[in-house]
């Protein structure tokens, strides 16, 4: 079916403004936050109601049209990259907070509501929604659910999966499923499909409504900044803080290239010569936080911190964070392009992994800056490159894949919070074997037998992995044949 | 040794798969009363035990499914750590595989730093109904590679796979725990109090009402606990820790006194179930209520209005429905998922729902 007749079909039940079919306007949807991959879809639709979503999905099933759901398009793995023969289903117009249930501490919102808008809507009740991906000002809750988004505070407060009470999900058949406990209870009968849907990258259903759990805002939050002249000392400090029984609200680490870039960009007062800095935020009851600040300070000293600062007030706390939060744009200023990796490792292997990343960086002749959610082992090496130089993107991707294989090798994973999308689909072949991937496909087909929802993402086909792994064998390196993968 | 146990379990599943013979998965058999009656030849996982990796500074532990919860908790306590979901031990034989498969959590469940069983599952190694051994998830806190099949196993009652190993996120023990006791004749007053307190940043870690007595557990630093006690009031209950353990393991008189039926009601925490004449015990700050001697269908109707669900937990006719019936499209999806993991339908068949 061509673009025009398809557009007419959707306009039968969607307003004119909800169907985009002009190539100029479609351009805005050709990529998500991973702009290295671009593709124009046949059509973009922006339904305004759950009924319209269901009807649209029935049309897609009938015409066997691939469907790529899209929230705010801030994802970093190409999960919302359009399909050339398919439509993009944007949830952007479904952006209303439907109900705030203060006694049960939940909010029911449409999928297109921005993450930060939820906390803003309930702030007057002394409540907040905990997961805070760095894009929280723009990203949508539906997208957070699709990716199981994390954030700076997930060591203490968990990921998206820990903070959702219920979902309404439209299936490819146009049915509407309620998963979880919509009233704000803590469980439901049957399988935990809520957990399965969260992080499923739009391949099992279209999330149209989300009931989030709300938490009481902590009475007090304080942040310490510790500077170290060796990365190991910073890493050991984190292990000691946790061994002391303290779960900080967030612990972030940056290496020297990241510190310099962030400091030049944000003037946060970071010591430019430090090998690593740690930012450690403690929150909760003010008496408890006061005691923990003293304890953490002593731990940082014990591990040879060359400088320790405790933010004196909210303004200084915001300043400490400003450098970390602007790390990505800061790198963007010193390099034409950068490529963000999302591997997660057991923390104890940090020094070894950073040393190996530095070695790979030299080998490939590409600079790498590292920011790190140190508390939960989620590493974000940023590879600096120039897409206008012939072959540099390919070289960058190869380096990226090497780093991910390194993460698997030390018992980690290829993606902690950004998702597989199109970007890491090759690396999935290294992390899972044939029967595991076949199991993923079987689960997918239980929801979507025709495989129309976000095809080509997240779970590689067996054929694709055969090709991918064969390529690796050609280079004389089967990916870790004797590796114990846990 | 344990590798050979794993091979033996796999062999047993392969044979059952080929012969289409149902298997009844048994760990410590401490929850044999729970769920529908599942026939089939017993598949014994209790011998598949042992902690494989435990690194306190990483807050991660991996154990074989047959490892006893009591042994695990003893090991964790040596490092001042614990399981964040406070799993019940209905007998000393409770295994970690059974605890994960049943998905039951103790009094700590709704509170900060705690959670459901699945909230602590990082990875699993499992045997599906075709006898394939697979790993999902891992040993790191954040992992979004592939569908979250590891968490799907929590509470699935062995219907989708046999757990061989589980990796769990571990939490530190709080430095201090204290229980406060208040007299409250009516459960409604306790529930109102629980929800008022839960909306404030207090170090609560359990909240229950039983027979006119409200108990609140506070967990945290000495300074934080003391401050919260001053804010809440009530008397310190020096035997409080015993109460929570007996509540967790169903050893309180409430559970012994009602031997005809025990229903578990899962509800939004602030929901009012009045007028409910049946005896009840309120746990989880109102989100879990144990009700004795009530009619399943009548109670279900009331609870459904609040978006909750009811389970016939003990002393029920285990050939009939035990869990809340699923809406038709959801039931159909469950069937298709069952087939995706266990095409012949041999694993704990009928334990959750009659059809699968």
Low-confidence sequence ranges of chain A: 473-486
The biggest beta sheet of chain B reads: 8 strands, antiparallel
Quaternary structure type? heterodimer
* SS summary, helix count of chain A: 17
Protein structure class of chain B: alpha+beta
Mean pLDDT of chain A: 93
Q: SS-based structural class of chain A?
A: alpha+beta
How many beta-strand runs of chain B?
16
- Helical run tally of chain B: 11
Low-confidence stretches of chain B: none
Explain this structure.
The complex is a heterodimer of chains A (486) and B (356). Chain A has 486 residues and is α+β, with helices and mostly antiparallel strands. Chain A has helices spanning 3-11, 23-26, 50-63, 115-122, 141-147, 154-157, 193-197, 231-243, 256-266, 286-302, 314-325, 327-334, 350-364, 392-409, 427-431, 434-447, 462-474; strands at residues 19-20, 43-45, 67-70, 87-90, 97-101, 106-110, 127-128, 164-170, 176-180, 206-213, 215-216, 220-228, 250-255, 276-284, 307-310, 337-340, 368-373, 378-385. With 356 residues, chain B is an alpha+beta fold. In chain B, a hairpin with a 4-residue loop joins strand 3 and strand 4 (60-64). The radius of gyration of chain B is 21 Å and the shape is globular. The longest helix of chain B has 18 residues, at 2-19. The mean pLDDT of chain B is 96. At the A-B interface, helix 6, helix 7, strand 11, helix 8 and helix 10 of A face strand 7, helix 5, strand 8, helix 7 and helix 11 of B.
Present the secondary structure layout.
The complex is a heterodimer of chains A (486) and B (356).
Chain A: H1 3-11, E1 19-20, H2 23-26, E2 43-45, H3 50-63, E3 67-70, E4 87-90, E5 97-101, E6 106-110, H4 115-122, E7 127-128, H5 141-147, H6 154-157, E8 164-170, E9 176-180, H7 193-197, E10 206-213, E11 215-216, E12 220-228, H8 231-243, E13 250-255, H9 256-266, E14 276-284, H10 286-302, E15 307-310, H11 314-325, H12 327-334, E16 337-340, H13 350-364, E17 368-373, E18 378-385, H14 392-409, H15 427-431, H16 434-447, H17 462-474
Parallel strand pairs in A: 2-4, 3-4
Antiparallel strand pairs in A: 1-2, 5-6, 6-10, 7-11, 8-9, 8-10, 12-14, 12-15, 13-14, 13-17, 16-18, 17-18
Helix pairs in contact in A: 8-10, 9-12, 13-14
Chain B: H1 2-19, E1 23-26, E2 41-44, E3 51-55, E4 60-64, H2 69-77, E5 81-83, H3 96-102, H4 117-120, E6 121-127, E7 133-137, H5 149-153, E8 162-172, E9 176-183, H6 187-198, E10 204-210, E11 213-220, H7 222-232, E12 235-236, H8 240-248, H9 253-257, E13 262-266, E14 280-283, E15 288-292, H10 296-305, E16 309-314, H11 328-341
Parallel strand pairs in B: 1-2
Antiparallel strand pairs in B: 3-4, 4-8, 5-8, 6-7, 6-8, 9-11, 9-12, 10-11, 10-14, 13-15, 13-16, 14-15
